[in-house]
Design a protein that fits this description.
The protein has 608 residues and is of the alpha/beta class. The protein has 25 helices and 16 strands. A six-stranded mixed β-sheet has the order 5-11-10-16-13-14. A four-stranded mixed β-sheet has the order 2-1-3-4, with helices on one face. Strand 10 and strand 11 (422-427) form a beta hairpin. The chain is globular and about 95 Å long. The protein binds flavin mononucleotide and iron/sulfur cluster.
């Protein structure tokens, strides 16, 4: 990462180096673009042409991919590119004012580059630090727990043009706040333990690798990424495909606002993640592995690569893992570039192939035809950690936690109005009230479980349970107390979905923008009862006719809050209840000008 704009002659050399690092492989296009972006703080047109030439791809493809990802800029950004996290929990802690303070101090407008090219300050949907909000990225490094003093310090460093490599390390310190450990977070697993356990189960059962799949199935492990699909079934269907090699993908995109438990696992439990991926590889007979790391977690890349290298040296990755002839499996890390939809499994696979992250049509499922048409499994970071422990301790042990339908424990990312935001591990079936008590929440009026695409609960529902049979959740748990306006929370989420829609299908592309506009209209005091009906209709339409889960759930926070916090909407509506959707008086303005009439009789509403 550099803060200095290099001379133009450097472009060719920079592209050459990036293309060589990624093996002149056109499926690595996004990674090449990312590396050029890191060097220049944008991808100059000359670099795009050069990449097209070297990878043998049409220039339109390069431009299309670059334009899809928020973190790839085709125009110069500032020497310091600052991205403020814009989750509702950041706003609740004053991020908007802090961003204003920075823009004022640096003499620039949000979203624009300073005239001298020093800095640019933008918003991004969510950085993954809402337990330490507000936060920002400066040239891809996170700065958390922002306050006015910190903003001043950052501005001084930027104005002095100090390279970020020389900034005080304490500025970039992040915390892994774990408040409650269960069997996952307290397991003293040693590297290789779970892989050896998987191999010995396979040997003992005489059923070979099927024993691994059987153990996962017996455990009734349901995926922890949000959708709760049965892991064993997914793995088995992949194993059944005759095509090789098979592929194991770890979904570390963690884009759902309010979730950060995967960041904690990647930072402090990375061996467990790798063990789980290797166990999966053993079960499905895979030799290729990928970790799709969200662009916001780019700062973790070097340390994760070091850990992978250490595991290779320990014989836990690469050829003949744990000395087992024929058990070859390695992992490559791909870094995303700021697109929420790329967390959707098929969009993620598209992105891994160096394309725009547009969700695929199904069938075929990824287990049949995934990465480059190969049988592929995609699982969440936490799912792999649990899979490793199941092979180590057995399915019965796992089923001893949780409920009959929802086995095991779940990591919950708690943020918002509470004293102890951070990660909590609970057996599935824990009540919302228990989590609220443990995190020190008071005067709570609502909890948003599972992020904006999840469920909003009010006080009457705090005895409901986080479990697949009740409240399904990827783990986000945002707490709102009585000072919060749930209408504004929902409005914020509506803008999140409008911003993140990939635009591929019409219901979502148009519907999410319409919802955001309707919410703005209501916020401005121009909304009517009719608008509330329209919101409900749009939510149903999006749910039924969108191409992927993003559009399907984009109306949820609005429908949920309308149902539970209707007065927060109604008190904003225009007094007489109905406002025509069509501004007839405005439409007649031209006719009035042409006829030279502007008396009261020529205005709608003024004749009565
Ligand atoms: C818009 C969208 C974003 C998603 N983001 C993530 C994510 O960041 N991490 C994740 O594990 N799953 C995410 N998912 C779910 C994945 O599509 C997929 O179901 C999951 O990775 C499967 O892993 P699991 O079975 O272990 O839960 C997302 C789904 C949608 C529709
Ligand atoms: S639902 Fe939205 S995010 Fe999903 S494919 Fe359609 S436009 Fe893209």
């Amino acid at each position: 990462m550099t803060e200095f704009q290099p001379e133009p002659y450097g472009v060719e050399a920079c592209v050459d180096a990036a293309v060589a690092t990624w093996g002149h492989d056109s499926t690595r296009l996004l990674q090449v673009l990312r590396e050029v972006q890191e060097r220049y703080n944008h991808v100059p047109p000359a670099a795009m042409e050069s990449i097209a030439l070297r990878l043998g791809l049409p220039i339109a493809r390069i431009r299309g991919v670059a334009a899809f990802y928020d973190f790839i800029a085709s125009e110069p950004t500032g020497m310091y590119r600052v991205l403020f996290s814009d989750n509702v929990t950041d706003r609740m802690r004053g991020s908007a004012g802090l961003m204003q303070q920075m823009c004022h101090r640096l003499w620039l407008e949000p979203g624009k580059v300073a005239e001298d090219g020093l800095a640019s300050v933008e918003r991004t949907s969510f950085l993954g630090f809402c337990d330490q909000a507000p936060s920002l990225l400066v040239n891809q490094r996170p700065v958390t727990r922002l306050d006015a003093a910190r903003i001043d310090q950052l501005c001084e460093l930027m104005l002095a043009r100090r390279p970020v490599e020389e900034w005080p390390g304490e500025l970039f310190a992040t915390e892994q706040r774990i408040w409650r450990k269960g069997p996952l977070l307290s397991d003293p697993l040693q590297p290789g333990d779970a892989i050896r356990a998987a191999l010995s189960r396979a040997d003992a059962a005489g059923a070979g690798y099927q024993a691994v799949l059987d153990e996962i199935k017996r455990a009734n492990l349901l995926g922890r990424g949000g959708a709760g699909f049965t892991t064993g079934v997914k793995w088995e269907s992949c194993r059944r495909q005759a095509v090789e090699p098979r592929v194991v993908v770890c979904n570390a995109d963690e884009g759902e606002p309010g979730t950060f438990k995967d960041r904690v696992l990647l930072t402090s439990y990375f061996d467990l993640v790798c063990e789980g991926m290797a166990v999966a590889a053993c079960g499905i007979g895979a030799s290729l592995g990928f970790i799709y790391l969200r662009g916001e977690y780019r700062y973790l890349l070097e340390s994760l690569q070091e850990l992978l290298a250490r595991r290779r040296a320990q014989g836990l990755l690469g050829r003949s893992i744990c000395g087992r002839e024929g058990f070859d499996f390695d992992v490559e890390i791909h870094v995303g570039a700021g697109s929420y939809v790329c967390g959707e499994a098929s969009a993620l696979v598209e992105s891994l192939e160096g394309k725009r992250g547009i969700p695929r049509n199904r069938p075929p499922r990824l287990a049949e035809k995934g990465y480059l048409g190969l049988p592929t499994i995609v699982n969440n970071v936490e799912t792999y950690c649990i899979a490793a422990l199941i092979l180590l301790h057995g399915a019965e042990w796992f089923r001893s936690y949780g409920t009959a339908q929802s086995s095991g424990t779940k990591l919950i990312s708690v943020s918002g109005d509470c004293e102890r935001p951070g990660v909590y591990e609970y057996p599935l079936g824990v009540t919302v009230r228990q989590v609220l008590d443990d995190c020190g929440a008071g005067r709570t009026i609502a909890v948003q479980c599972g992020g904006p695409s999840g469920t909003c609960l009010d006080q009457d529902e705090f005895d409901r349970r986080i479990a697949f049979e009740d409240i399904e959740s990827g783990g986000a748990f945002m707490v709102f107390n009585e000072e919060r306006d749930m209408f504004q929370v929902a409005r914020h989420f509506s803008h999140f979905f409008a911003r993140e829609s990939c635009g591929f299908c019409t219901p979502c592309r148009v519907g999410t923008s319409l919802l955001a506009r309707l919410m703005d209209r209501i916020s401005d005091g121009r909304g009517s009862q009719h608008d509330l009906q329209t919101i409900e209709e749009l939510q149903r339409l999006l749910h039924c006719s969108s191409h992927c889960g993003l559009g399907e759930s984009a109306g949820n926070p609005l429908a949920d809050t309308l149902q539970r916090f209707r007065p927060a909407y109604e008190r904003r509506l225009i007094a007489h209840g109905v406002e025509p959707a069509f501004d007839l008086d405005g439409a007649l303005a031209r006719a009035r000008r042409m006829t030279g009439r502007d008396d009261p009789g020529a205005h709608i509403g003024e004749t009565a």
